[in-house]
């Protein structure tokens, strides 16, 4: 009887301990659930502290060199090429003969045109004399004079054909490509030679709309060429497009005198001085990625008592991925740089970094 009583007491104690343990675990689980619920209500964000810094205010743009002049020299007449007088790499002057077209048939036409001209001269002279004595009418004399002018024009036309049988360089430069060989039959407009003039080159770059108003024609621009890192070059702005492209960039050309080591197609970087020659300027900035709906909106979120507060600031110039702040921030504020798409004014936040 006594043993049974002891077993009952032990069992009761064990039951009580189990109940106490279950109650304790339940309370702990409830607290954990509540803590998780609090975190779920918060939106994870990254922040950066607003501060002043020295910003390089010069603007750089990349581009490639193109020849100042280039020309595809073509044939003006049909015919067979009998000689090619230059090769790729040859330097040529404007007007120099590059190739010749067979002109036997043209010379026959020239002879015929000259014979017709002599007949027209003789006929016209007879009509002129006959008109003085009343032997022909004024209309007959006018027709004779017209035939003479037509014969003279025909001779000049054949002279043009003879001249066109010699294919001449339209510009001075270097033969970059030769697309013709002796024996080929060519037609008018057939491209025969590609000539480039690289005594001076043009660096073609695109300048952002935010910077285009700070440069001007004739401005001196330092240039660095990727494949010639130890050499410095400079040029002058010769063209600023009056209209931007679809990306709001303006084509700009900078003419550079070639010292002999530059080639068309080389990649280079132009640096535009946009702050009266000063290389850096101390200013208050925030990352461009912090702005809601782009920099032009002027809106961004700052941290305020564990929540996101939407504010509007006045922006200045854009320098790469940094935006100058003119007013709306004083420095020291924490600006949210990611997660803005999930935020509303007053949203609870959890700062990740």
UniProtKB/TrEMBL annotation:
Keywords assigned by UniProt, alphabetized: Coiled coil
Domain called CusB-like beta-barrel: residue spans: 204-274
Stretches assigned to the Multidrug resistance protein MdtA-like barrel-sandwich hybrid domain: 75-196
Pfam families attached to this UniProt entry: Beta-barrel_RND_2, BSH_RND, YknX_C
Gene that encodes it: mexH
InterPro entries associated with the record: Beta-barrel_RND_2, MdtA-like_BSH, RND_pump_MFP, YknX-like_C
Keyword Coiled coil (UniProt): yes
Phylogenetic classification of the source organism: Bacteria, Pseudomonadati, Bacteroidota, Flavobacteriia, Flavobacteriales
GO CC annotation terms, alphabetical: efflux pump complex
Coiled coil: 103-130
Family matches, as NCBIfam families: RND_mfp
GO MF annotation list: efflux transmembrane transporter activity
Domain YknX-like C-terminal permuted SH3-like: 284-350
Organism of derivation: Chryseobacterium hagamense
Family of the protein in this entry: Belongs to the membrane fusion protein (MFP) (TC 8.A.1) family.
Keyword match Coiled coil: yes
Protein name as annotated: MexH family multidrug efflux RND transporter periplasmic adaptor subunit
């Amino acid at each position: 009887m006594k043993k049974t009583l002891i077993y009952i007491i032990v069992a009761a104690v064990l039951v009580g301990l189990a109940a106490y343990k279950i109650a304790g675990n339940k309370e702990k689980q409830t607290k954990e659930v509540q803590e998780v619920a609090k975190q779920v209500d918060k939106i994870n964000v990254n922040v950066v502290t607003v501060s002043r810094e020295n910003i390089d205010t010069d603007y750089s743009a990349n581009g490639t060199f193109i020849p100042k002049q280039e020309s595809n020299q073509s044939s003006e007449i049909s015919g067979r090429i009998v000689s090619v007088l230059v090769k790729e790499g040859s330097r040529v002057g404007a007007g120099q003969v590059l190739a010749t077209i067979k002109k036997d048939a043209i010379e026959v036409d020239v002879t015929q045109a000259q014979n017709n001209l002599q007949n027209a001269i003789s006929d016209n002279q007879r009509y002129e004399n006959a008109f003085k004595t009343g032997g022909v009418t004024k209309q007959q004399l006018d027709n004779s004079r017209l035939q003479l002018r037509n014969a003279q024009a025909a001779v000049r036309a054949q002279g043009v054909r003879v001249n066109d049988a010699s294919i001449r360089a339209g510009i001075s430069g270097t033969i970059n490509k030769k697309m013709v060989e002796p024996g080929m039959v060519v037609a008018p407009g057939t491209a025969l030679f590609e000539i480039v003039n690289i005594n001076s080159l043009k660096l073609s770059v695109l300048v952002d709309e935010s910077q285009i108003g700070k440069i001007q024609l004739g401005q001196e621009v330092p240039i660095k060429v990727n494949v010639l890192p130890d050499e410095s070059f400079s040029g002058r702005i010769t063209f600023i497009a009056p209209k931007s492209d679809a990306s709001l960039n303006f084509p700009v050309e900078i003419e550079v005198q070639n010292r002999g080591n530059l080639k068309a197609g080389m990649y280079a970087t132009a640096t535009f001085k946009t702050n009266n020659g000063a290389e850096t300027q101390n200013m208050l900035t925030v990352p461009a990625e912090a702005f809601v709906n782009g920099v032009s909106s002027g809106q961004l979120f700052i941290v305020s008592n564990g929540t996101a507060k939407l504010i509007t600031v006045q922006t200045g110039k854009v320098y790469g991925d940094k935006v100058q702040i003119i007013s709306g921030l004083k420095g020291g504020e924490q600006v949210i740089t990611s997660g803005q798409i999930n935020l509303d004014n007053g949203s609870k936040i959890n700062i990740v970094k």
